[in-house]
Amino acid sequence: MAVSVFIAATLRRYYPDYDPLKGISIEVPEGASVEELLKLLGIPSSEVKIIMVDGTHARTDTRLKGNERVALFPAVGGG
């Protein structure tokens, strides 16, 4: 099943050919978790601080159903 993934900021270094306008379309096994998706992408889960699935906050153990839009964000610093 396919999901669309959008990667923000410093997480993009793990996917060098990433196009922010298109995102990534990736096939994952049915019922895969966000954690499994991160492993497929080569992004350490420890670096992902915010996960959104179809605009709703999610966790690494959230199961995917297919055709979702997954957005991944690192910690944001500032002052």
A few lines on this structure:
The protein is mostly beta strands and 79 residues long. 10% of the residues lie in helices and 28% in strands.
| Helix/strand/pairing category | mainly beta
Low-confidence stretches: none
Could you tell me the CATH topology label. Ubiquitin-like (UB roll)
Strand order of the largest sheet: 2-1-5-3-4
When the domains are counted, the total is 1
CA-CA gap between termini:
41 Å
Classified in CATH, the superfamily is Beta-grasp domain
CATH class: Alpha Beta
Radius of gyration, in Å, reads 12 Å
Beta-strand fraction estimate: 25-35%
| Helix content, binned percent | 10-25%
What is the H/E order? EEHEEE
Largest sheet: 5 strands, mixed
How many individual β-strands? 5
CATH architecture: Roll
Summed up, the helix count is 1
Mean pLDDT: 92
Globally, the shape reads globular
Organism: Thermodesulforhabdus norvegica
Protein name: Sulfur carrier protein ThiS (Thiamine biosynthesis)
InterPro entries: Beta-grasp_dom_sf (IPR012675), Mopterin_synth/thiamin_S_b (IPR016155), ThiS/MoaD-like (IPR003749)
Architecture overview:
With 79 residues, the protein is mostly beta strands. It has a single domain (2-73), classed as Roll (Ubiquitin-like (UB roll)). Helix content is 10%, strand content 28%. It has 1 helix and 5 strands; from the N terminus they run ββαβββ. The protein has one helix at residues 34-41, and strands spanning 2-7, 24-27, 50-53, 56-58, 69-73. The protein has a 5-stranded mixed β-sheet with strand order 2-1-5-3-4, with no helix packed on it. A hairpin with a 2-residue loop joins β3 (50-53) and β4 (56-58). It is globular. The protein starts with a strand and ends in a 6-residue tail after the last strand. The model has no long low-confidence stretch (mean pLDDT 92).
